[in-house]
Specification:
CATH architecture: 3-Layer(aba) Sandwich
Organism: Novosphingobium cyanobacteriorum
Strand content: 25-35%
Protein name: YfiR family protein
Order of helices and strands: HHEEHEEEHEEEHEHE
Distance between the termini: 29 Å
Radius of gyration: 15 Å
Number of helices: 6
InterPro entries: YfiR/HmsC-like (IPR025293)
Pfam families: DUF4154 (PF13689)
Number of domains: 1
Largest sheet: 8 strands, mixed
Number of strands: 10
Shape: globular
Keywords: Signal
Structural class: alpha/beta
Helix content: 25-40%
């Protein structure tokens, strides 16, 4: 049996509870589960030029499935950082550290992608289209994929422990 370091165990537990790693149980509210996964992932990301004590601004595309659940993260603490939530209309995500755009395509991703921004979205093709983290529903579970190349291009650093938990990593 392999023993995980404390930090890896904490990540595995947090993400498994949120549904990112194999877990038992049915998805009763997939949008709430997506919000929990995004929240837990943000705990293990470093944003360029942003000290770990500064708040993270999480923006969700107005009208995207699950944007209401993301609003519930406002004021929560992701590690040492407070999460500040706001919705946006899709034209600009200026000032956002993390952005959720739902079922976005490469044009949508390009519109919101900027230095230091973690871009989340739905679907198996999301990371291949240039998004940073794709949330993929597989049966009763929601897993996440990571595009490490996009993260590196935008200057976002994702914990290696979190990378190991991703169902797929684009390099």
């Amino acid at each position: 049996m392999r023993i995980l370091p404390k930090s890896a165990l904490a990540i595995a537990t947090a993400v498994a509870v949120a549904g990112g790693a194999p877990a038992t149980g049915q998805v009763s509210n997939p949008n709430a589960l997506k919000a929990a996964i995004v929240f837990n992932i943000m705990r293990y990301v470093e944003f360029p030029g942003k000290p770990a004590s500064q708040p993270i601004t999480l923006c969700a595309l107005r009208g995207a499935a699950g944007s209401g659940e993301f609003a519930g993260l406002n004021g929560q603490r992701a590690g040492n950082r407070q999460v500040l939530y706001r919705s946006f209309d899709g034209s600009s995500a200026t000032g956002c550290d993390a952005v959720f755009i739902g079922n976005g395509d490469s044009a949508d991703i390009a519109r919101v992608r900027q230095r230091g921004t973690l871009v989340f979205g739905d679907g198996g093709g999301f990371t291949s289209a240039g998004g940073t983290v794709g949330l993929v529903r597989t049966g009763a579970q929601i897993r996440f994929e990571i595009n490490l190349r996009t993260a590196n291009e935008t200057g976002v650093t994702i914990s290696s422990h979190l990378l190991r938990l991703a169902s797929r990593t684009v390099r």
